[in-house]
Amino acid sequence: MLTSEQLKTVRKIHIRTSHLVSDLFAGQYQSAFKGQGMEFAEVRQYFPGDDVRSIDWNVTARTGIPHVKRFIEERELTVMLLVDASASTQFGTVSQLKSTMAAEMAAVFAFSAITNNDKVGLVMFSNEVELALPPKKGTRHVLRVIREVLSFQSQQRGTHIAAALEHLNHVSKRRAVVFLISDLLDPSAALALKIASRRHDVIAIVLDDPRELTLPNVGLIALQDAETAERMLIDTGDRQVRHEFAQRAQTARRERERMLHRADVDAIVVRTDQPYVEALLRFFRKREHRL
Fold first, then answer.
1. Would you say 112 and 27 are in contact if contact means Cβ atoms under 8 Å apart?
2. Which end of the chain, N or C, is surrounded by fewer C-beta atoms within 10 Å?
3. Mean pLDDT rounded to a whole number for the chain
4. Domain boundaries, the chain
């Protein structure tokens, strides 16, 4: 059951993302993600300029008039949203939590999908798969997806991306467009990402917060790892401590980039302190240009 505050958030996300999709993303989405192949449509009479490779020789021989086969793109896709519900997503130091941003990103892709008559499914995961909604069409289903992402209370703290990808490979018989929405703080996911990307079109939506990159100079503070609950006392007034923290954060992010690159997985990095619209538009343009 959603709280009144969560219901307000769902309405805000619905209004904001549906406008973004109709105004900006619908066309880019359709260009960036192609269908499953070509589907036979009809046989018609040959006209000058038609590709001679498409001539239907059987019909041509039977009628004595050149005919060609016409195909159309099989447009319908299945879009799967794999959303990280681990404890590290319940973090945000600017305007929103990473989990709230995850819900908004899920909404953008879900509304883009149903605008193009595609199906949308959801998998919520932490240490394990905790919730799975099969792919469906329609606004009512998408609103349920957003509500689930916003209100879901994980029973676990950690992250096991491989479990979500293995579940996807088990239940999805056809190739799907997969948006993995996570902070990707799971280096053990490398092999599972590589396997999944061979079968599906996997795109990682990477959630970042500025405080995970640098520490402010605020003196002695107590920090707790959200997923392991390990606590430590840090003197942020020490320049060397701040420098080492920033270095480790940069190293972790470079390793994350290498992991995604080796798995042939595209990535869109979004931050809780920056608008995500430009990052998404850059991604769509890049995909359209590549295709």
1. no
2. N
3. 89
4. 4-33+78-290, 38-74
239-262 vs 190-199: helix axis angle to the nearest 10? 30
Cβ-based burial of 95 (10 A; exposed 0-12, middle 13-18, buried ≥19):
exposed
DSSP per residue over the chain, as a string? ---HHHHHHHHHHHHHHHHHIIIIIHHHHHHHS--SEEEEEEEEE--TTS-GGGB-HHHHHHHSS-EEEEEEEE---EEEEEEE-SGGGS--SSSS-HHHHHHHHHHHHHHHHHHTT-EEEEEEESSSEEEEEEEE-SHHHHHHHHHHHHH---S--S--HHHHHHHHHHH--S--EEEEEE----GGGHHHHHHHHHHSEEEEEEEE-GGGT-----SEEEEE-TTT--EEEEETT-HHHHHHHHHHHHHHHHHHHHHHHHTT-EEEEEETTS-SHHHHHHHHHHHHHH-
CATH code that applies to domain 4-33+78-290: 3.40.50.410
Least confident of 30-39, 50-59, 212-221: 30-39
**DSSP labels, 86-130:** SGGGS--SSSS-HHHHHHHHHHHHHHHHHHTT-EEEEEEESSSEE
Q: Among the listed ranges 77-81, 87-91, 99-103, 169-173, which one has the minimum average pLDDT value? A: 169-173
Residue 211 CA to residue 216 CA, distance in Å, equals: 8
